[in-house]
Design a protein that fits this description.
Residues 69-172 form the Disease resistance R13L4/SHOC-2-like LRR domain. With 256 residues, this protein is an alpha/beta fold. The chain has 5 helices and 8 strands. Helix 2 links the parallel strand 7 and strand 8.
Length: 256
């Protein structure tokens, strides 16, 4: 199998990684490797371990290696939309981390290490769209959390220690099998409704999908241009008013 193909995904070289660094308005350096087809954490990134932010979202990563502990300057780490099923214990050494996005992965309860609670400066944590059945009560020690995403999992209870975090402003645990959501059964709706709307740019669509979308948009515009009160109703102009003939001849009938 040729190098860089198959399960290894796209091979990221040190040169490519260096060219992917962006300096933000606040002076931080962000390593942007989103949507690169990466399946294995590139070891060459160790040469750039002093960056403050890393975006590895929308790849094919299954594991985050323990060498993540080398990135001690990390403040912001985005790993959403991969295939990660567990985190290494070394994630807890990133004491400067304030933002951690793990949304849309395959994390299970066992895949959350106890050391996650050592991230005492963490303010935003997104664990939505995973396979979590329970949440460790020890997450209640993350007292700097202001936002916590737990939506679209398999949770049946949210620990009180988590709900009562002192600085928590946003807690999203929608679409979990929680008892409070089962109290009132929603009436059956025979009309299909859109629950989620995903927006993409034209450049991310294949030609076939783009043509389909443009065709549906043209049909919608035709419907919008139709005048109100369409005159498509059937017209029976040749028919006489009911009983009109009988009314004209009723005197003749009576005489007969």
């Amino acid at each position: 199998m040729p190098k860089g193909k198959g399960p290894q995904g796209k091979r990221i070289t040190l040169k490519m990684a260096k060219n992917s660094i962006r300096v933000l308005f606040n002076g931080r350096r962000r390593l942007e490797l989103s949507k690169m087809g990466i399946a294995v954490f590139p070891k060459c990134l160790l040469e750039l371990a002093d960056v403050e932010e890393i975006d590895l979202s929308r790849n094919m990563l299954r594991k985050i290696p323990n060498i993540i502990e080398k990135f001690q300057n990390l403040v912001w780490l985005d790993l959403h939309s991969n295939q990660i099923d567990e985190l290494p214990a070394e994630i807890g050494t990133l004491q400067n981390l304030t933002f951690l996005n793990l949304c849309n992965n395959k994390l299970t309860t066992k895949g959350l290490p106890e050391q996650l609670t050592r991230l005492r400066n963490l303010r935003i944590l997104n664990l939505g769209l995973n396979c979590l059945e329970t949440i460790p009560t020890t997450l209640g020690t993350l007292r700097e959390l202001t936002e916590l995403g737990l939506f679209d999992n398999s949770l049946t209870i949210i620990p009180k220690s988590v709900k009562k975090l002192p600085k928590l402003e946003k807690l999203n645990y929608k679409r979990n099998p929680l008892p409070e959501f089962a109290k009132e059964e929603e009436p059956i709706d025979t009309i299909k409704r859109i629950e989620s709307l995903y927006l993409v740019e034209k450049k991310d669509l294949c030609n076939s999908c783009l043509q389909t979308c443009q065709g549906e948009r043209d049909e919608l515009h035709l419907l919008e241009d139709m005048p109100p009160g369409s005159t498509d109703k059937p017209n029976f102009a040749s028919l006489t008013t009911p009983n009109s003939t009988a009314r004209d001849n009723q005197e003749e009938w009576r005489m007969k």
